[in-house]
Design goal:
The chain is of the alpha+beta class. The protein has three helices and five strands. It has helices at residues 2-18, 30-39, 70-76, and strands at 25-28, 53-58, 80-83, 90-94, 98-102. A hairpin with a 6-residue loop joins strand 3 and strand 4 (90-94). The protein is globular. It starts with a helix and ends with a strand.
Length: 103
């Protein structure tokens, strides 16, 4: 299962990178730990991915200034979109693998 999650994590980061959004988000939670290990930032650190969700902090909702419809881009890339009307939270889902949530 973890290999599928890692593949979909990379797919998600690529989606943001390819659409000039990567500099506007911060990866938080257990997937940040995965990056620590993969990049060697913390030598001898062991990541513990416990969840299926990828939490992304949006640095500033006003940027990028140019309109980028991430929902449409995610749909085209095969994600299912789930929006909660009461909370206003939108999630990108890759069923059985990864849930991308914006904080």
């Amino acid at each position: 299962m973890i290999d599928l999650q890692v593949r979909d994590f990379i797919k998600t980061i690529k989606l943001f990178h390819d659409n000039d959004c990567i500099s506007h988000i911060v990866i938080v939670g257990s997937w940040a730990e995965h990056l620590y290990v993969e990049t060697g930032i913390l030598p001898s650190y062991s990541a513990n991915i416990k969840t299926l969700d990828l939490d992304l902090l949006v640095k500033n909702m006003r940027y990028p200034r140019q309109g980028i419809n991430l929902i449409e881009l995610a749909k085209e890339a095969g994600y299912h979109i789930e929006s909660e009307r009461l909370s206003g939270i939108t999630k990108f889902l890759l069923p059985g693998s990864l849930e991308v949530e914006f904080l």
